[in-house]
Amino acid sequence: MEVTIGVQNVARELTVETDADATEVGKAVDAALASPDAVLRLTDTKGRTVLVPGRAVGWVQVGESEKGRVGFGAIS
């Protein structure tokens, strides 16, 4: 699952590839936004942990990972 996080006052977003499903990620985001002192904590596919203060989260996009495309497109 690919999770993209927009952080307030930061020009670039964070993209995390995680093994968690959309429900788990949604619960983590909800918990981080529920309290001003909470932290959004996600673990990526390599076991690294990403921490974002809940008060700094601007937006979160959760979606399926796009698999790498191999080969050539259709030629018309």
Please explain how this structure is put together.
This protein is α+β, with helices and mostly antiparallel strands and 76 residues long. It has one domain (2-63). Helices cover 17% and strands 36% of the residues. It contains one helix and five strands; from the N terminus they run ββαβββ. The strands form two sheets. A three-stranded antiparallel β-sheet has the order 2-1-5, with helices on one face. A hairpin with a 5-residue loop joins strand 3 and strand 4. The radius of gyration is 15 Å and the shape is elongated. The protein starts with a strand and ends in a 13-residue tail after the last strand. The mean pLDDT is 89.
Summarize the structure.
The chain has 76 residues and is an alpha+beta fold. The protein has one helix and five strands, in the order ββαβββ. The protein has one domain.
Q: Provide the helix percentage.
A: 10-25%
Indicate the structural class: alpha+beta
- The domain count comes to 1
Major pleated sheet: 3 strands, antiparallel
Instruction: List how many beta strands DSSP finds.
Output: 5
**Main sheet: which strands, in order across?**
2-1-5
Question: Percent of residues in beta strands?
Answer: 35-45%
Uncertain stretches of 5 or more adjacent residues: none
| Cα distance spanning the termini | 34 Å
Integer-rounded radius of gyration: 15 Å
Q: Note the total helix count.
A: 1
Name the overall outline.
Answer: elongated
Features:
76 residues, alpha+beta, three-stranded antiparallel sheet, two-stranded antiparallel ribbon, 1 helix, 17% helix, DUF3107 domain-containing protein, DUF3107
